[in-house]
Structures are given as structure tokens and as C-alpha cells.
Amino acid sequence: MYDVIVLFDGYSENTEMGSCANCSCVLLKGKDNIIVDTLTPWDGEKLQQKLWNNDINCEDIKYVVCTHGHSDHTGCNYLFSNAKLIVGFSISSRDLYFDHDFAGGKPYIINEFVKVIPTPGHTLEDVSVIVETKDRGLVAITGDLFEKEQDLSDDSLWKSVGSGHDDMQQENRNKILKQVDWIVPGHGPMFKVPDHYK
Hints:
It is globular, with a radius of gyration of 16 Å. The chain has one domain (3-197): Metallo-beta-lactamase, Chain A (4-Layer Sandwich). The longest helix is centred in the C-terminal third of the chain and has 14 residues, at 166-179. It is built from four helices and 15 strands. A hairpin with a 4-residue loop joins strand 4 and strand 5 (34-36). With 198 residues, it is an alpha+beta fold.
């Protein structure tokens, strides 16, 4: 089983100049070390420092999963040259790309504790990571499928940053809420799923 370590809580806010945002970045420490969503390209130094604080080097990361291809979720992928990359529905290692039927609903099994499942809605190729943990039960790292905990009661928070696939996103949100105990959303702290969603 895994330790889920949120290296950085995501955030988003509207300003006069535009939206100010960065994603949640999560280290899954266990059998195969995994990082989920790698911030913006300007965050490499602080990301490396956080990993070192957790006794992990970039070379120790076996998988990088980016929940979708937006720049605030993929920016530091370049740090992890030993890792297999899963960016939305695309799986690659160096110049080799692997076939996988995410579009048909097939999960990608990393190991017996971690799988990557298709959860389109925010984009048509979003994925979420489901991980069995030592102390929190099942945790989903969902990227922008969930913006933040507050969007459970105010759906305008996720619909306002979506890409026009609201019905699909709502369906996948419901699926996640029914099966996991905790969620790490794209732009807010980890939260416990309220019991009434089960």
C-alpha cells in the first residue's frame, strides 16, 4: 500500500489580469514511486526540493501521471527522465508510445495498489489515479474533475472552468464519489468524501 503525500495544494482565483492557478501535486510513495501532476514549467526547483524533503530523487520516480494535458499539470515532466509518462490518454517512455484503450473505459494497472482510470469531462482525455493507502482507504487524485471541495455544493466552481462536457464530467464525478474515501482535487486541498455520497 501507499503513502499519499500532497507536495503542493492546488489553487485558483480570478484576478484583474486573468486566472491565477496551479495544480495539486502529489507523491505516491510505495512499491513504484509515482508523481501525479507536475505543476508549471517554472516550478522545477521547488518540486525537486519537496521530493528531497521526502527522501526521493527525481530518478526514483517510476511513473508520472498527468491527469490531463494542461500546462499547469504537465510543466515539470522533464525532471523525470527514468519515468513512464501517462498524460491523459497517452502513455509513453522516451520516444515509444504504448497503445491502451482508455477511450473504451479500460483502466491502466500500475500495480496491485494503483490504477489510472479514464474520467473525461474537464477535457475529453482526463484520467484519475485510484490508490489504496495505508491509512486513508481509497484515495482518488482527480485533477480538474473536481476543482476543490467547495464544488460539491456549488457546481459553478467546476462548470466555469470546464470545456463543455458537463454531463460527462458529472457522471465521472459521481462514479468517483461512490467508490473512494478521499479526493485530491485539481485546485484545492485533499478532502474526505461525505458519507451521503456512498
